[in-house]
Amino acid sequence: QVQLVESGGGLVQAGGSLTLSCEASKRSFSNYAMGWFRQAPGKEREFVAAIRRIISNDYYVDSVKGRFSISRDNAKNTVYLQMNKLKPEDTGVYYCAASWGDHSGTYYYTRGGSYDYWGQGTQVTVSS
């Protein structure tokens, strides 16, 4: 069992920045690929970013490319999501998720069903 705890959400004006953190409870954190998803009110959960465990390839949804950056610190069992140039449409609850192992192909990491563990989420609100 892996527990994931997100932090760093809040209220920010459009154009501002936030950094989300997600700390995992397991020492085997380095064996997991990590992803960030978000869910806006009235909308389905969507993939935001992911980072693999071995070669640290990262993937992003097109709407955040160039603005968001995912990184991980295996020594601290933590994955980060640096969010810059935030827009009102980035508003939502952000969830981190962990997927055991390493798999080829971008599509695998964009699917919620590929992840084994989920955090409780942290709210991000971007005002216009």
Number of strands: 11
The helix count comes to: 1
Derived structural class: mainly beta
H and E order: EEEEEEEEEHEE
CA(first)-CA(last) distance: 40 Å
The backbone outline, from C-alpha atoms, is globular
> On the 0-100 scale, what is the average pLDDT?
95
Main pleated sheet: 7 strands, mixed
Relative helix content? under 10%
Q: pLDDT under 50 segments (min length 5)?
A: none
**Into which percentage range does the β-strand content fall?**
over 45%
Alpha carbon gyration radius: 14 Å
How would you characterize the overall build of this protein?
The relative contact order is 0.31. This protein is 4% helix and 48% strand. The protein contains one helix and eleven strands; from the N terminus they run βββββββββαββ. The N and C termini lie far apart (40 Å). A hairpin with a 4-residue loop joins strand 7 and strand 8. The strands form two sheets. Strands 2, 4, 5, 6, 9, 10 and 11 form a seven-stranded mixed beta sheet that branches. A four-stranded antiparallel beta sheet has the order 1-3-8-7, with no helix packed on it. The model has no long low-confidence stretch (mean pLDDT 95). By secondary structure, it is mostly beta strands.
Sum this structure up briefly.
This protein is mainly beta and 128 residues long. 4% of the residues lie in helices and 48% in strands.
List the defining traits of the structure above.
mainly beta; seven-stranded mixed beta sheet; globular
